[in-house]
Amino acid sequence: MTRVLLTTAGAERLRAELKRLKSEDRPKVIEAIAEARSHGDLSENAEYAAARDQQGFIEGRIAELESQLSHAEIIDPGGLNANGRIVFGATVALFDEEGDQEVTYQIVGDLEADIEHGQISLGSPIARALIGKEEGEEVEVTTPGGVRRYEVLRVRYQ
User: Fold this and answer.
1) Domain 4-75 maps to which CATH number in 1.10.287.180, 3.40.718.10, 3.40.50.300, 3.40.640.10?
2) Cα–Cα distances in Å, from 120 out to 98, 107, 137, 157?
3) Rounded to an integer, what is the distance from CA 133 to the centroid of its chain?
4) pLDDT tens, 52-92?
5) Span 99-140, pLDDT tens digits
C-alpha cells in the first residue's frame, strides 16, 4: 500500500472512529449475535443474519482503518513553513470570479476530504491547480462544468 497523507486533525478523527468501532460497536454486535442465537433456528433468523452482516462491516472497517493509519504520513499544517505557497494541509481563501464570491478550502488527503466542511482532496482538480501557488496569483481550473477562474486571496497553515 502506498503512503496515506493525513492532517493531524484527520488522523485524530480516524483514530476516534477506530476506537469507537472497537470499544462500542463491536461489543454491541457481538451481543446482538448472541441474543439472536438464543432465539433458536439460525437458518430462518433475520436478526441473526443482520447482526452477522453488521459484524462483517465493522470488522472490515476496523481492518481498513488500521491499515490506513499504519501507512499514514501525518502532517501538522500548523508546523509548515512553505513561505506562503499552497501545499498539502494549507487553508486557502479564493475569490471565485464566476460566482463572484469568496470560498475557503483546506487541502487534505483523500480519506478526510469533505466538501461540505471545505476540505478538498489533494487529488481534486482544484487542489492540483492550487499546489505551489501563492497569494495574488490567479488560477484556472478545468472542471467537468467548464473552466473556473480563482484568485488566491490568503494562504494559512493551521
Assistant:
1) 1.10.287.180
2) 19, 5, 19, 15
3) 23
4) 999 999 999 999 999 999 999 999 998 887 888 999 999 99
5) 889 999 999 999 999 999 999 999 999 999 999 999 999 999
Contact 80, 91 (CB under 8 A): no
Q: Is 41 exposed, middle or buried (0-12, 13-18, 19+ CB in 10 A)?
A: exposed
Cell of 130: 492550487
CA atoms within 13 A on the CB side of 148: 20
In angstroms, the first-to-last Cα distance of the chain is: 28
Whether the CA torsion 125, 128, 131, 137 is positive or negative: it is negative
Residue 1, pLDDT score = 58
Q: Enter the C-alpha cell of residue 146.
A: 467548464
